Amino acid sequence: MAGGFGSLAPKTKNLVVAGGLTAFVFGVYFYTMRAVGGTDELQVAIDKFEKKKNENEAEASLASKA
Question: Which residues cross the membrane (predicted)?
């Protein structure tokens, strides 16, 4: 059923499974990050929007003081 794990203690089996799952999760994470390519288009768009919003707020505050 479980292959060669039958002779191992239950705690050891749990550690082997936990290590395998952890390796899988990190593998998927790093594969995804590599596939995305590091360019975060959404963050670039948010930064542009924030910059424009701050410029508009600065212009509005200058116009109200004048």
Answer: 15-32
